[in-house]
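# nightly structure sweep
# worker-07 picked up a monomer target from the shared queue
# config: single-sequence mode, recycle default, output format = structure tokens
# input follows
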Amino acid sequence: MAAPAGCTAAEDAAMFNCSGEPPPAPYIVSWNVTRRCNLACAHCYLDAVQRKSEARDELSAEECLAVIGQLARTAPGAMLVLTGGEPLLRHDLEQLVQAGREEGLMPVIGTNGTLLDARRAESLRDAGAAGLSISLDSSDARFHDRLRGLPGAWAGARRGLAAAGKAGLAIVLQTTVFEENRRDLTALADIAGQAGAMAFNVFFLVCTGRGVTQTDLASAGYEETLREIMLLQEQHPGMKIRARCAPYMRRIQGLHAGECSGDYADWSSACLAGRRYLRITPQGRVTPCPYIPEVIGDLRHTPLAEIWNESPVLQRLRRELPKGKCGECDYRYSCGGCRARALAQHGDLMAEDSKCIHVRPEGQLPEAPPAPAARPAVCWEPEAEARLERIPAFLRQRVRERLEEYAIREGVDPITVAFMAAHRPPGLSSSGSRGMRG
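# output follows
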């Protein structure tokens, strides 16, 4: 097999899926279960609409259940993010949650929070939802309501946060950052902490859908905001604070990819689109991520496994180095730039991400393909191995690696259930069934 453009033969040998083996399964799936929404957010990538009933072309309940069955086979144990539009507008949402849980997936709900009351939160919990992510874009109700297109949206989101917490659901607070609210992150992190959120996700705008009308941060603003997120993490050690759609956080942290079986470290914040992540539209079409609108398959006509394994677009994302400065960067594997932003900026999925201001220092070589770290084998007791298998797929490998690192350091062999409990990561339950850290 010839090396992709821009790769040497040695790099090609190290790149993902050049051995002919099937790609690793996705461990995060984002599913827009409806385009309906009760808000009119100015930055919506889906261009969701306010209407009284589902559009006729959206997947029916029966079709959704069939898709869940496909997901269970193709992405066993994956986190399944059921979002919209506004997913709470689907009357069968609990049925989808329950089906996902019964199939071994980890269903979570991505909502604007305004329709979430105590009854609905308890209903979702009882159906098997692991948690909810709720969007709040400012500590100031005026900015949030203006962005979301509805007076009272901020107050509704706060009520939703309270209802989720009271029902015992894990909570993730999510914010899309703009120039107008990027200095509000400290207050938002405080709100997240007060609400008992296990994580605070800061999304960096990708100008797609209605988002093309919005003002993206200037490059310098990106850098400053990423550094602020690092400081906020230090101030909130009990809550994971993450930058989303900003893979250059790896560079800001000075971290290179290293623990992986192919090209990108699975646990890093580098772009996972098409590698371990996919998105499903309300009509059952598949794209590499929500911000890459290119349809790579239709689940009404093509099995998910075939799309995931054979899509030429996904093969490009897995095997090609990006072009321009991203392809020559000293963080080209650890970061690699946002592929959705490259497509939006240049019309080419593998173009450079021009938003990043980093230039490889003179004399510094481009980053070499990462190789798996060699370390002694560690045995696992059968009961501990079974406990590990109950941890969601998107966390399992990283948890295994961390526990084996601890075992080697402490001279423990084999790993037992008691050892796992003593070294359990914060926010991960003993079975992993309620953990949502990534």
